[in-house]
Specification:
heterodimer, A: alpha/beta, D-Maltodextrin-Binding Protein, domain 2, 2 domains, 5-stranded mixed beta sheet, 10 helices, 12 strands, B: mainly alpha, MetI-like fold, 79% helix, 0% strand
Chain lengths: 251, 224
């Protein structure tokens, strides 16, 4: 019995080990708003380099807590620039690896066509019950929405209409179900392949708020890992850039 | 020790849990009674529907509540027709959601209590010319009292611990829909771990004490 299985086992071990030698694996923590483009980038990355990227999606604050408590991620794509900087300051990253992989665009969006006009005048009329925003304390898109309203002098008047999503996906859900007439979300959520996907949209001018920089960083776990390095290079490359732009991000 | 925002969240949570528990005891008692007594073939279906929140992830329940209670959903259309507006993002909406979410925790202990009482005491009461209502209030209720206490404690505690459903339909509005569990989530997300610990630790202690009271009581009554 034993002798019959030994070659089989040896063959299996060889097959598995040869696989892992050729193709590395990189575990990536990804901010929830970057889910769709990152899936496409990971697929292209695997095809082009043979390395496999294992993606874990979540809210940036939660991913931070997981990283601080020993999560095995090697690369972190955050929804802001503060969290990667904080990890860097705390010595949890490969020094000098931090870079901006995408700049988010804020939009005012309604599921009803024609509800939001091209200049955002609908905000000044204030004829709605609920304006959905994302928690400004935790989400960069929420902070940008509050900054925009403040700059337009509308914040105090509209604050009582706020309903707050914990992340942009939830805010989108509030609006798409019609429970909130309109709200501030990420352009990437209503854009596929470079096209707006329905409802009505005001693309908020970039000078109304601080840029929504989304930074990536190689974590301490990813030090000297070829697959992690390859992914970072790939993210900075042309193919990734095209995917990122087609989802409504800037660079 | 507690900031104003935390106090508001604690207060709102207690209010929500109290109102939900009272409604559930009122609605759940006849429902549990029917489930305990009925020979109907619908018993299985109704029992399964009541038990759904035990197995469904709260996000599923919250998602469907958001859709059905929303302006385009059937219940949302009804509430708008009645001039009540729509329920999501209101305290009343949270109460409706919590009643669904905590239903099995109230109905099931009551049903078990009623089944344990059995038909015999009622038959005896009937021979003594007690009306069915009379028999229910003077015979069944005292006999099923431990079941009512368990149901009230579990319903209350489970509503306090509610998170996913509230997050989905609440909209996180201070003093209206921002309950303790959502507040804790906010603190953790904002990396305010010290604030989170105060509330999270309090929640842990509260839940433990409630369950301790529940299980200690059960043991003594079982041994009597």
């Amino acid at each position: 019995m034993k002798s019959r299985f030994t070659p089989l086992l040896a063959g299996l071990v060889f097959a598995v080990s040869s696989l892992t030698v050729q193709a590395g694996e990189v575990q990536v923590a990804v901010a929830a708003n970057f889910t769709a483009p990152m899936r496409k980038i990971a697929a292209a990355f695997e095809k082009d380099t043979g390395h496999k990227a294992l993606l874990a999606f979540g809210a940036t604050g939660k991913l931070y807590a997981q990283i601080k408590n020993g999560a095995p991620f090697q690369v972190f794509l955050a929804a802001d620039d503060k969290t990667p900087a904080k990890l860097e300051a705390e010595g949890d990253t490969v020094p000098g690896s931090r870079f901006t992989y995408a700049i988010g665009t804020l939009v005012l969006w309604s599921a009803q066509p024609g509800y939001v006009d091209q200049q955002g005048e609908v905000l000044k009329k204030g004829q709605f019950k609920h304006l959905a925003v994302t928690n400004p304390k935790t989400a960069p898109y929420g902070a940008a929405a509050v900054a925009t309203l403040t700059k337009l002098g509308l914040f105090d008047g509209l604050q009582s209409t706020f309903v707050t999503g914990e992340n942009v996906s939830q805010t989108y859900q509030f609006i798409v179900t019609g429970n909130a007439e309109l709200g501030f979300i990420a352009l990437s959520q209503v854009m596929t392949d470079g096209q707006l996907s329905g409802g009505s949209t005001w693309i908020v001018p970039a000078d109304l708020h601080e840029p929504i920089r989304q930074d990536a960083v190689v974590l301490a776990n990813g030090k000297d890992q070829p697959a992690a390095q390859a992914l970072v290079e790939y993210l900075k490359g042309e193919k990734a850039e095209a995917i990122i732009r087609s989802h409504g991000y800037d660079l | 020790m507690l900031s104003d925002a935390n106090v508001a969240a604690v207060w709102l949570t207690l209010k929500l849990a109290t109102i939900t528990t009272v409604i559930l005891l009122i609605v759940g008692t006849p429902l549990a009674w029917w489930l305990a007594r009925t020979p109907s073939k619908w018993k299985g279906v109704v029992g399964a529907v009541v038990a759904l929140p035990l197995v469904l992830p709260p996000t599923v329940l919250g998602f469907y509540l958001l859709i059905t209670l929303g302006p385009h959903g059937p219940i949302g259309q009804l509430t708008q027709f009645l001039g009540w507006g729509v329920l999501p993002f209101t305290f009343a909406g949270l109460v409706v959601a919590s009643v669904f979410y905590s239903m099995p925790f109230v109905v099931q202990p009551l049903q078990q209590a009623f089944e344990a009482v059995g038909a015999r005491p009622l038959e005896v009461a009937a021979t003594l010319r007690a009306s069915p209502w009379d028999a229910f209030f003077t015979v069944v209720l005292p006999l099923a009292k431990p079941g009512f206490i368990t149901a009230a404690i579990l319903g209350f505690a489970h509503t306090v611990g509610e998170f996913g459903v509230v997050l989905m339909i609440g909209g996180n509005i201070p003093e209206r829909t921002r309950v303790v569990s959502v507040q804790i989530y906010d603190h953790v997300e904002a990396l305010e771990y010290a604030e989170a610990h105060v509330l999270a630790g309090g929640m842990l202690l509260f839940s433990f004490l409630v369950l301790l009271a529940l299980y200690s009581r059960k043991r003594t009554s079982a041994w009597k």
